[in-house]
Amino acid sequence: MTHRLENAHLQLTINTDISRWSLVGSNLNNPSIENAKVEFQYRRGRREEVALNDWGDSGIERVDLNDSPHGLLQQLQVVSEYRKDGLRFTLTFALPQDYPFLIWQLNVSNHGRHPIQVERLEMLSAGFVSQDLKKPLSAIHLLPLPLLKKFSDSPVPGEVSFFSNGWQSWSYTGVYRWSDNYRYPRLGPLRAPVITNPGTPRSRRKGFFGSDMFGALGHTSQRTGILAGFLSQANHFGSIETWIGPQPPALRMWANGDNARLDPGSQISTDWACLYFFHLDIPDALSPYLDAVARQHNLPDNEGRGLHAADYQPHDPHSKIANHRIHNTKISQEHPQIPTGWCSWYHFFQDISADDIRDNLAAAVKLQPDLPLQVLQIDDGYESQWGDWSTFKDTFPEGVAPLAKEIDSSGFTPGLWLAPFIVHPKSQLWAERKDWLLRGQFNRPVNAGYFWGAFTTALDLTNPDALDHTAQVIHRAAHEWGFPYLKLDFLYAGALPGRRCDPTRTRAQVLRNALQTLRQAAGDQTTLLGCGCPLGSAIGLVDSMRISTDIDSHWLPVHKGVRMRKLGDEGMPAARYAIHNTLTRAPLHQRWWINDPDCLLLQPDMELTLAEVQTLATVIAMSGGSVMLSDHLLDLPPERLRIAQSLLPPMGQRPLVLDWFDNQTPTRLQLELHGSTGCWHLLALFNWLDETQDMSLWLSDFLLDTRATYYAHEFWGAKSYQIQPGSARTNPILLREIPAHGVALLAVRPHQPYQPQYLGSNLHISQGMEVTAWEPSSNKVQVCLQRPGRARGSILLGLPYPPKQAQIDGKPLTWQPDGERCYRFEVEFEQTAEISITTETGK
Ligand code: 9PG
Q: Does ligand 1 have an atom closer than 6 angstroms to the CB of 241?
């Protein structure tokens, strides 16, 4: 028997005779999935079992649902039994009326007399070669069906790529081609527990790739894609596996059961799986999925709202975040504010003292008028050991509570780093609370990774006392010591595999529950930053999330002076890798949380070149995420401080990553901005080569109307370009000598030669948000500018006739011609400026 569900986008067919499901798009150009398999893998004692591959005499029911987070759902439910062990399966397929995806979920209840251990709930498997030739063939067709008939379905090697999402904040995320090596930590037990999910396979075989929570397959010449992912990670961690190569691809996705026990009378459900077809050239192609995940967590649909001129208020040095919106405005509210601040880690590392914090606080106070930061965050190094969060190193003789007071009374939001789930072998906690530790093989505490010369371990968060302890740690920091901003790190440790007090819980349930407990302990008014965290577990529970590995003063990983090219992995601290993930995970920003791209490093005497620093600044700014500094503030020379200044306030908005599927590290970012001067485009083009190159910027590679004339101004080099209509397609803008790892950052505006126009500046990286009023008339222009503190720089105006006279706050202002009908005005002002320019008049 076949049963159908259909909406405007998709048609699902369930075939109970062969126990398979198929999905085609209503548009003939879509990919399709043929005869996908579902399977339940478990153990009873030593016996390994596979069930649900035969739906036999299942019942099928049509049950529609009105009030899902995704609106009206048409649902088909397959109810099937596995008599041998008394298991009952309910497989629910749903097509929302308003969204282009299929979601489906599996529920298993144990009606037998024995507990079972759940290994894997496979939601989809198609395209893998079956040993059993009697089984119907399953397939993933990236080629649209009409083409399939014409050509063979076999892609040329290299035509199918896979976008893989890494396990936690630091794990590599990006596109793989067939010929690529799957990135895995090469230092085995030192790194693997940190960077990878043990449920997601890491095959060394060519063409096999894995992904956590979601992944996307795409045909690079047909431009078709398939997204597969889970809408939450509340019950199970989801894994995706694919094979790509010279034959049609294969795809598998499952919920990891973690061998959690399912007792008689109990049941479990998977998180919803989600799948849809898309066109690779649709900007923001992951949005149907990413937004659905946000809805599933009751987060508002966020349009990637960014900075508007009205937000651009000069900073009041006495207002802390507490009086500011970030603090009263949690991410679940309408306008989350983007954190800015200073973090102690990347200058001091663990070698830090209370006086170092005070010095930088004093520096931040001094700089505040010019560099209005919000948070002053104490990172790792104050506590006596990981695990001992209420005793302190000698360098913090009075602990951190007095510092919170000082930071607070200086007008900043006190921030503190904590790693509540990880335990150091030398900690008192390890010695005294052995029963709280998560146990693995031979009853030894599990390995949570090797850091600073020791193998660490983790707490068993199903032990009520251990969990309660972590809640106390957070409560104390937030409410007794006075830190309304907490960076919670090494959170993956809570989800390591091991034997727990409660063996019925999956790792995903344990971590989600523990994070909920921490959120409760912190209260709604505390800003939480997740770090080292499996992404799906923290959605809706943290305000911001690190989405990259640590920044570093080196481009590629260096450990104790030794370059780690061979031994390193992409989760190691390195500027290149931090930037990479900030780009590949940019679409999560303002959907699941505020992205934290890690700190902007600026000091001139590090290994990063100026071009690399400009790239880092561009990526952080255009990501729309938090803007944190971490250098010794007193040491920063003015020209480096100016870079930081130009990033404040943060733009906030989510950029489009245009080549997310076509380049391993994306090279093209686009932001659509609007303010007093109208609408403009901010485009970034990166040079990831290790050498200087001339680069061509084709407007047709960005989302711009190529029939218009444009004016473009490059931020870092202050160079201007004019683009004639049509030339955007035929002649690119030639950007000469972009240094190795450098960037061109262009504000692009439609050119209106007969009207006064604001064309750019070096005051703010947006090149326009600094303008609060713009009033052009026939022979006069009035401009109001607003910048924190003392601002010095230039603005570039297009004027139909040359200026006759110009004033800034009533005083004379000088200008220089800069290209045809363009003039550069050097400005210097405190906080705000009113500029008025009279021009010659035309006859
Ligand atoms: C404090 C630091 C900082 C930093 C965090 C985290 O893979 N690793 O070896 C690895 C080590 C440290 C690390 C991340 C990865 O840093 O991201 O910002 O807070 O802890 O110890």
A: no
What distance in Å separates the CA atoms of residue 498 and residue 437, rounded to the nearest whole number?
10
Considering only CA atoms, which residue is closest to atom 4 of ligand 1? 550
Query: Is the minimum distance from the CB of 570 to ligand 1 under 6 angstroms?
Result: no
pLDDT > 60? residue 540:
yes
Q: Quickly tell me which residue has 């992409």 as its tokens.
A: 570
d(CA 483, CA 529) in angstroms, rounded, equals 13
Q: Which one of 85, 271, 380, 550 is the catalytic residue?
A: 550
Residue nearest to atom 11 of ligand 1 (CA): 451
Instruction: Give alpha helix (H) positions in 489-561.
Output: 507-522
CA–CA distance, 821 with 148 (Å, rounded to integer): 56
Cα dihedral value 191, 197, 199, 200, nearest 10 = -90
pLDDT tens track for 718-766: 999 988 876 555 668 899 999 999 999 999 999 888 899 999 999 999 9
CB distance 170 to ligand 1 below 6 Å: yes
Taking CA atoms only, the protein residue closest to ligand 1 atom 21 is 380
How is residue 5 annotated by DSSP?
A: E
Ligand 1 centroid to 550 CA: how many Å? 6
Q: Whose CA is nearest to atom 3 of ligand 1?
A: 345
Say whether the peptide bond before residue 649 is cis (omega within 30 degrees of 0): yes
489, 543, 598, 631: which one is catalytic? 489
Residue among 104, 88, 84 at smallest CA distance from 96 = 104
Residue that is written with structure tokens 């303010």 in the block: 675
Cα separation, 472 vs 460, whole angstroms: 16
Looking at residue 319, its pLDDT comes to: 35
Q: Which residues pair with 829 in a beta bridge?
A: 791
Is the minimum distance from the CB of 291 to ligand 1 under 6 angstroms?
no
Structural tokens at position 160: 């199918």
Of the candidates 3, 211, 24, 212, the one whose C-alpha atom is nearest the C-alpha of residue 102 is 24
Give the predicted TM-score (pTM) of the model.
0.95
- SS3 category, 98: coil
Is the pLDDT confidence value at 313 over 70? no
**587 by DSSP, 3-state: which?**
helix
Q: Residue ranges of the alpha helices (H) in 143-286? A: 145-150, 192-195
Task: Using DSSP bridges, classify how beta strands 558-559 and 627-629 pair: parallel, antiparallel or unpaired.
Answer: unpaired
Q: Which of 133, 164, 152, 140 is nearest to 250 (CA)?
A: 140
User: Has 550 been annotated as catalytic?
Assistant: yes
Identify the CA nearest to 173 among candidates 208, 215, 217, 144. Answer: 215
Nearest protein Cα to ligand 1, atom 18? 550
Rg for the chain, CA atoms, rounded: 28
Say if ligand 1 is within 6 A of residue 417 CB: yes
State whether the beta carbon of 345 lies less than 6 angstroms from ligand 1.
yes
User: Phi and psi dihedrals of 108, rounded to 5?
Assistant: -125, 130
Cα separation, 54 vs 67, in Å, equals 32
